[in-house]
Amino acid sequence: MDREALYRDPYPVYARARAAPGLTFVEELDAWLVARHADVREVLARPDDFSSKGALRPDVIPAPAAFAELAGVPGNAPVVLSTDGEAHVRYRRPLTRGLSPAKVTAALPFIQATAGELVASFAKDGRVEWMAGYARPLPAAVIGHLLGLDPADVPGAVQAGNRAEDLLFTPMPEDRQVAAAREVAALRRMLAAHAARSRTQDNLTGELSRGLAPGPGEPAPEQRDEIVANTQNVMLAGHLTTTALLGTLVHRLLRDRRQWELLCERPDLAGAAIEEAARFEAPVQGFRRTVTRPLELAGTALDEGDTVFVSYGSAGRDETVFERPDEFDIAREPVRHLSFGHGVHGCPGALLAREQLRITLELLVRDLPGLRLAGEDVVMAATLIHRAPEELFLTW
């Protein structure tokens, strides 16, 4: 199996790994696969033994010409996702404040208005490509709003953020790498200027700016790098995960018509539907961890420096935890999944994602109860970072 095939459908590999004794080394991941629910939970609960450094190791090393475009541009610093200990606590604290339940509640009117406008923009057409028409623009607008970005700047900022991902995870010829790096450089300069204006403002960028550069005066260069890097990271993570879940949730509800009809009959199952979508297709399929000392996990001896791939996606299909794990069923008895992480690296934006999904389901059930798939051929994107359909055509 090549890497693209694994990324498009990792579940057979996961199933074999869960059934095998110990851990399975997967060449395409260049890592030991942690596939069982209990083992995933154990690794996430032991950050001292399994470091987050290198959590998102690139699949591609950009050409020197691409790196040159980023030379001297703010933003070359670690982020919350790939740090441990005190650095992780320091990076996470402003995100926890900026994405608190109170801040998410305050954003609900914006989310509801934006979601309503998007649905209204295509409701009369009788057909929409869901990912481009709704699943991408809603979370992008919402994270832009929370960051305090000018709405006119959000589409370009999100596109440039996506180019940052492409640069590290999509093979491209050198000229496209250079073009992508230029977009990323422009984004980082814009975020640096926005952070400077936001130090006294009540938004997520302001929280990051004050939290990572406390005290009066201008941030030091290394503090500015941290602010820009972590602002770019939360902007990307803040919409990709929710976009993926919006794709999965609607796809799975409509693929088995009984699930959609049940939700229309019982809108109170919306919360259960959201959790089932997260369990069934974890939007982030997994992250890497680096072993910090010789140890044993699931009967497999690991050495310091070894890499494990901690698969949330596989944990959600564990037969020992979930009945009929390969069936999407919004009426199943709820069991706690790990798709938003666990422990110190649990997703700080999980509540924000859930509220966008809840508002979306309320809108669709009310305004488009006749929703159905326009075709059965749905191709999943070749990525483990935000698992979702590449395109999803709907009609009603």
From TrEMBL:
This is Cytochrome P450. Coiled coil: none annotated. InterPro entries: Cyt_P450, Cyt_P450_CS, Cyt_P450_sf. Residues 198-223 are annotated as: Disordered. Belongs to the cytochrome P450 family. Transmembrane segments: none annotated. It comes from the Bacteria. It comes from Nonomuraea helvata. Keywords: Heme, Iron, Metal-binding, Monooxygenase, Oxidoreductase. Signal peptide: none annotated.
